[in-house]
Amino acid sequence: MNNINLMKPNKENLNFFLIIGSLFFGLGIFDFCLNIFFGKNITFFLPGFISFFTPLIFGMIGLHFIRIEFSGIKQLDELNKNINTSNFNAALSICIIILIIFGVAPLLNWFIFEANFVGDSKEACTGDGACWIYIKVWFNRFMYGMYPNAEQWRVNATFIAVLVLGGLGYFFPLKFKKYLTFYYVIFLPIISFLLIYYLISGGEFGLEWVETGAWGGLSLTFIVSFFSLIFCFPIGMILALGRRSDLGIIKYSSLSFIEFWRGVPLITVLFMSAVMFPMFLPDGTYVDKLIRVIVAITLFEAAYTAEVIRGGLQALPRGQYDAAKSLGMGYWKLHLLVILPQALKLVIPGIANTFLALVKDTPLIFVVGLLELVGMLNLAKTNPKWLGFSMEGYVFAGIIFWIICYSMSKYSQKLELKFKTDR
Q1: Confidence of residue 1 (pLDDT cuts 50, 70, 90)
Q2: Mean pLDDT of 59-86
Q3: What is the 3-state secondary structure of the chain?
């Protein structure tokens, strides 16, 4: 072993410094955890104000020993490059780690260690932790709303069928790939609507009729999000093309539509669709509230989607248009085969962001009397037998929405990589 200079760790004594550095860093974290969970310090014999800073001191010493330039270990070099470039950065990194542990420790206690999982009533919830019994008891309502328990298989069968139909596109033979857009934009929505109408609503084929007012929970969130996402995209695309049209009536009609819907809050749009719209219908005409809500959300989000797509259209150089025209392409052929494929590829992050906002906006339908997931939570928390457990409900809803939105986000990132072209 070469001469060791503790003030300047080097590559020649790499193993020694890694072991010593890891020990000091681990000692600092252990000291802090010991204090958080048991109120003890390994340096209890020192004055209190010194013991308070010993986790930070141990951690900084540990990071100092592993701060070795060009160590040859990829993970170590990345760590030093990002969080351990200097003593100041090391101190900041230790403080952030300590703050994370400080916040996570009580959260884990509430979430898992002191939580109640077994039981069927409020009386089984004891201690200071979360009462997940509340979620277990109300789980069916959170998933299906007021839909009859004996008929919930119809909701499950419908969603399974739609998922299977949606996945069929991945198995299309290569010679039928050109019809994939038609399948997803026309065929799938029609089949999905028929399945929902005849299977979930019922009233035909010997199935009990279930009004849409009884639909609710996460299943209603999926239904509203699914149809709104499918319809707002083509409408937004048409509006984006219309706003860039050379024909004045088309351009200003599209512009007026987009600016009107972007200037009105969604909650107002939903209220108008549920309360005001029926007043303008002829006598004897009835449009289901759920359909009105889906149309309202679709038109609202289509305006935002249009602006995102318009940004992609404007990002393309004029040469793309001229090249397509030089090949004799007309307006629709030019846009469908040359312009839109390039523009949509550029705005995948923006479209994904709009779709995520749409999914997270669905709880607003609670104001018109449709009880999706958050609406059912608001109803459950007012039940006299379960007062005081709203926190568990909102945490549950937050986790569900995070899973949905994170999945959509990861899928959009895969699409970006799939259609990425180097310039």
Answers
A1: low
A2: 82
A3: CCCCCCCCCCHHHHHHHHHHHHHHHHHHHHHHHHHHHHCCCCCCCCCHHHHHHHHHHHHHHHHHHCCCCCCCCHHHHHHHHHHCCCHHHHHHHHHHHHHHHHHHHHHHHHHHHCCECCCCCHHHCCCCCCECHHHHHHHHHHHHCCCCHHHHHHHHHHHHHHHHHHHHHHHCCHHHHHHHHHHHHHHHHHHHHHHHHHHHHCCCCCCCCCCHHHCEHHHHHHHHHHHHHHHHHHHHHHHHHHHCCCCHHHHHHHHHHHHHHHCCCHHHHHHHHHHHHHHHCCCCCCCCHHHHHHHHHHHHHHHHHHHHHHHHHHHCCHHHHHHHHHCCCCHHHHHHHHHHHHHHHHCHHHHHHHHHHHHHHHHHHHHHCCEEHHHHHHHHCCCHHHCCCHHHHHHHHHHHHHHHHHHHHHHHHHHHHHCCCCC
* Least confident span in 2-6, 97-101, 114-118, 311-315: 2-6
Residues 6+ apart with CB under 8 A from 125: 116, 119, 131, 133, 134, 389
- Tell me how far apart the alpha carbons of residues 370 and 36 are, in angstroms, rounded to a whole number: 45
What average pLDDT score do residues 407-418 get?
88
Q: What pLDDT score does 159 carry?
A: 92
110 pLDDT more than 80: yes
Cα 338 to chain centroid distance, Å, stands at 31
What is the distance between the alpha carbons of residues 119 and 135, in angstroms, rounded to a whole number?
11
- For residue range 156-212, list pLDDT tens digits in order: 999 999 999 888 877 777 676 667 777 787 888 889 888 888 898 887 888 889 888
